[in-house]
Specification:
about 450 residues, mainly alpha, 2 domains, two-stranded antiparallel ribbon, about 0% strand, globular
């Protein structure tokens, strides 16, 4: 008897498939979080002193995905046995429309001199995070391979170290760097999905831990012996400026803010399309090999979109437009950031942690080494937790999550996260190649 498609493929449709409904659910979740976190006393007040609201904005959508209420992607099977792969567009909408809008609204009042005064520790922590990824993978392979050699084996295109090279590309740079590593080392694309899976699970677990840590920033900084005066000075300067220009926004103010935000988004998408196409031709014109793949990120439209948005925001900060901070520019930007956080949380199915367990363990050990190195260096140079958090996320999370983490400390700090993340794109492939050389040696030992 011949099996039908419906017997082979499981229908994984969530309760709500329509993005309009799902978006409403996410907004209700965010509204509930902010309503409860605003309580000045009682159990909710005690709860949010331990667990940050930003973490809950990430975790509750993850729970909804885990229990099948919503889903980032699913398989629908019709009555006649035909299977259809479907997906939600909410993360794409949030990362391509709301993220750049948030970045420009949070950047228009930035004080570049005050950002410069933060000193070199942010860059040191970012490079430490990069070093942690480069050495963390090979050490994880050595440790896990000692007990489970099959987990780090494979020959030819199936070699696990080749697959792990794509993780290095993603965790130092981003998606473009990850793809570059796939092309450089020729990992079996049929197995590539498993590495993407590890990337999503481990990176999201680590981001959740960082978000929880934000709620304990003062205690962590005290333990690190960190000098937070430059950060506090920047936050105070931005808060004072916001109060100075604060006003009850009129409809005209809000419409102008909307024009600034989404006009920038429009221009950034327009410009990124041309720039990515131009550099794609440039990159393809280079001789095949490492040199070509080092510059692959230049053909990424997302890279150019984020870069153009940041440049526009910085340029506007030198004009009278910066006074629109008083009309709530960064507050509106924060709304967009929270929607992005919820859409990222929606991508995380907590049950996936129990699949491909050995690869997950390798990823977790890898990230643990990354974290321990960051903590050690932060302790040595007395770097604040803020620098540790964005130094890590500018590597592991890239331009999508670095500004989320940075803005959780203060909206004015989002630009710092973006600048480091963009730098990560530039060095991502080269750093990943260095990591892969060590991965290959570790797998062969």
């Amino acid at each position: 008897m011949q099996n039908t498609v419906s017997e082979i493929v499981k229908d994984t449709s969530p309760l709500f498939e329509n993005d309009t409904i799902v978006f409403g659910v996410l907004m209700l979740v965010l509204g509930l979080i902010f309503f409860t976190s605003a309580k000045k006393s009682g159990a909710w007040n005690k709860f949010y002193k331990i667990v940050p609201a930003l973490f809950m904005a990430y975790f509750i959508p993850a729970l909804l995905t885990t229990f099948g209420v919503i889903s980032p992607e699913w398989t629908s099977v019709t009555e006649d046995g035909k299977a259809f792969e479907q997906s939600s567009n909410l993360y794409y909408m949030s990362s391509r429309y709301l993220l750049p809008a948030a970045l420009v609204l949070m950047t228009i009042s930035i004080d570049l001199k005050a950002v410069y005064n933060l000193g070199p520790k942010a860059l040191i922590m970012f490079l430490t995070g990069t070093a942690g990824i480069i050495i963390g993978g090979p050490i994880a392979v050595l440790l896990i391979g000692t007990f489970f050699p099959e987990a780090v084996g494979g020959e030819g295109a199936d070699a696990v170290w080749k697959g792990l090279s794509t993780l290095a590309g993603s965790w130092i740079g981003g998606g473009a760097n990850q793809t570059a590593m796939l092309e450089i080392y020729g990992y079996n694309q049929k197995l590539y999905g498993g590495m993407v899976f590890v990337d999503i699970v481990v990176a999201n677990i680590w981001m959740a831990i960082i978000l929880i840590g934000i709620g304990k920033t003062a205690k962590i900084d005290k333990w690190l012996g960190a000098d937070t005066s430059a950060i506090e000075s920047l936050k105070e300067k931005m808060s004072s400026y916001a109060k100075k220009v604060e006003r009850n926004p009129t409809l005209t103010d809000l419409m102008i803010l909307g024009a600034i935000a989404f006009g920038t988004v429009s221009f950034a998408h327009f410009g990124s399309g041309y720039l990515s196409s131009f550099f794609e031709e440039f990159v393809n014109g280079l001789a095949p090999g490492l040199t070509r793949n080092m510059f692959t990120f230049l053909s990424s439209s997302f890279f150019w979109m984020i870069s153009l948005t940041t440049i526009i925001g910085v340029l506007l900060s030198f004009t009278k437009i910066r006074k629109y901070e008083g009309a709530g520019a960064s507050k509106i930007g924060s709304v967009f950031i929270y929607v992005l956080v919820a859409s990222i949380g929606m991508k995380m199915d907590l049950t996936l942690i129990f699949e491909n367990q050995l690869l997950i363990v390798i990823g977790l050990v890898w990230m643990l080494i990354h974290a321990l190195l960051l903590i050690a260096v932060a302790k040595i140079i007395k770097a604040p937790y803020f620098f540790l958090a964005i130094g890590s996320q500018a590597n592991v999370g890239g331009a999508a999550s670095a500004p989320i983490v940075a803005s959780a400390f203060h909206p004015s700090l989002a630009t710092v996260g973006v600048l480091l993340a963009v730098f990560g794109y530039a060095i991502g492939t080269l750093g990943a190649v260095a990591c892969t050389v060590l991965l290959q040696l570790a797998a062969a030992s």
